[in-house]
Design a protein that fits this description.
By secondary structure, the chain is α+β, with helices and mostly antiparallel strands. The chain folds into 2 domains: 3-116 and 254-267, Diaminopimelate Epimerase, Chain A, domain 1; 125-247, Roll (Diaminopimelate Epimerase, Chain A, domain 1), CATH 3.10.310. Helices cover 18% and strands 43% of the residues. It is built from 6 helices and 18 strands.
Length: 271
């Protein structure tokens, strides 16, 4: 097996400071690679997501892996990928980043110090809470809904969101990718807060979850009667998102900081 030196980066997304936001690994490849190798690298990186991308025409094929599985949509690793392409000069500073993904074409563009992602909205429909879900979260819900990927559990206050202490063993059995816990914000300057738990895919708590805001933004936009929202994910690391609703799309804006640049010394297998 040929020894290769693949560029790999670690980027903190949805923050303007190192050691905050959500860290993602970004690996730029020369072409398609076997899925088992991608999963092994993601397991080695042991972050909530590792992004792999290679050029296809004027776009980039993008896949996201947790340490356990491939996922269909990820916001922070897409933000990190766009940031890396511009910073590494793989894309011109004013060029739009176009990503071919399992969730269709996603784009990113620079807006000053911010990066704006164009993602599909994931509307939430009210549902009955599945057995054991609220007990696993340890919260009392004012609303339970379900998007394509996740449950959304609204509670009465930001204090309750911050205080949630899930039983991850029980929560792992929830029939979904993950669970959002959310409320209106009392922190000045924000419309709502959230946390995101996904032990079923190997991420007990995700620090900042762009894809969850594809559901949170329509939910809070309808509730508050607003198209433009500011969100705070209140994990230990924390993260800030600017959101704009545009029909069936959600514009998700955040900042990013590179923490690490290196080379992945591993045999690169065929696709």
């Amino acid at each position: 097996m040929k020894l290769s030196r693949q560029a790999i980066y670690q980027v903190d997304a949805f923050t303007d400071s190192v050691f905050a936001g959500n860290p993602a690994a970004v690996c730029i490849l020369p072409g398609p690679v076997a899925e088992a190798w991608l999963q092994a690298v993601a397991r080695e990186m042991n972050l909530s997501e590792t992004a792999f991308l290679h050029r296809e025409g004027d776009s980039w094929r993008l896949r996201w892996f947790t340490p356990l599985v491939e996922v269909d949509l990820c916001g922070h690793a897409t933000l990190a990928s766009a940031h890396t392409l511009w910073e590494s000069e793989a894309l011109a500073p004013d060029a739009e980043a176009r990503f071919l993904t399992p969730s269709g074409l996603l784009t990113a563009r620079r807006s000053g110090a911010w990066i704006e992602l164009d993602f599909p909205a994931q509307p939430v429909e009210p549902v009955e809470s599945p057995p054991g879900l609220l007990q696993a979260l340890g919260v009392a819900a004012t609303y339970v809904g379900r998007s394509r990927f996740d449950y959304l559990v609204e509670v009465g206050s930001e204090t309750e969101v911050r205080a949630a202490a899930p039983d991850f063993g029980r929560l792992r059995r929830a029939p979904a990718r993950g669970v959002m816990v959310t409320s209106g914000a009392t922190t000045p300057g924000f419309d709502f807060v959230s946390r995101f738990f996904a032990p079923a895919v190997g991420v007990d708590e995700d620090p900042v979850t762009g894809s969850a805001h594809c559901a949170l933004a329509p939910h809070w936009g309808a509730k508050l009667g607003k198209r433009d929202l500011r969100a705070l994910q209140v994990s230990v690391r924390g993260g800030v998102l600017r959101l704009r609703l545009e029909g069936e799309r959600v514009r998700i804006s955040g900042q990013a900081v590179t923490v690490l640049r290196g080379e992945l010394l591993a045999g690169l297998p065929p696709p």
